[in-house]
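Hi support team,

I've been running sequence recovery on a batch of backbones for a student project. Most finish fine, but this one hangs at about 90% for roughly twenty minutes before it completes. I'm not sure whether the input is malformed or the queue is just slow. I've pasted the structure tokens below so you can try to reproduce it. Let me know if you need the job ID as well.

Thanks,
M.K.
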């Protein structure tokens, strides 16, 4: 028997151990996905994640959720903002305030769309979950490629 064929069962055991370790880590990966990337407004994993550029507010939201919140605070008569805009989640103000409480620019100019910065982190979590081949409970396997939660997130992220 050659050394190479003797190594195959050993390599298989190593792969099996890695899979089992991965399956034990999977709940933590999914929890991290929800804890780090959940939209503060809709509660789902953020599609086009973004947040305001302020020193104090670190609330992460879906781009569309943030856009809706900003637009809904606009004056319906004139299309302007006559009050200081605050984060729809934590109510911290953002953007410099001009005379008589008016903003010096549209509040949309103060939002940073960080999707391009967070996408590599999201994709690495997805790759880890996708690599698991052992049995996973539904709340984890739904995040694998083709799973219901992954498909829903992908649709909202398009």
């Amino acid at each position: 028997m050659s050394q190479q064929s003797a190594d195959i069962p050993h390599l298989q055991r190593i792969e099996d151990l890695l899979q089992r370790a991965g399956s034990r880590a999977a709940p933590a990966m999914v929890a991290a996905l929800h804890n780090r990337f959940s939209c503060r407004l809709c509660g789902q994993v953020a599609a086009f994640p973004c947040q305001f550029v302020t020193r104090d507010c670190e609330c992460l939201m879906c781009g569309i959720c943030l856009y809706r919140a900003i637009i809904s605070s606009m004056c319906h008569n004139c299309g302007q903002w006559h009050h200081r805009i605050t984060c729809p989640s934590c109510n911290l103000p953002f953007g410099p305030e001009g005379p008589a409480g008016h903003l010096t620019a549209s509040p949309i100019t103060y939002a940073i769309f960080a999707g391009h910065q967070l996408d590599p982190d999201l994709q690495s979590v997805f790759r880890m979950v996708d690599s698991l081949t052992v049995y996973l409970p539904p709340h984890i396997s739904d995040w694998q490629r083709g799973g219901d939660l992954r498909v829903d997130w992908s649709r909202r992220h398009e």
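--
Follow-up from support: It reproduced on our side and the slowdown came from queue contention, not your input. Residues 25-158 form a domain with the Herpes Virus-1 fold (CATH 3.30.40.10). No action needed from you.
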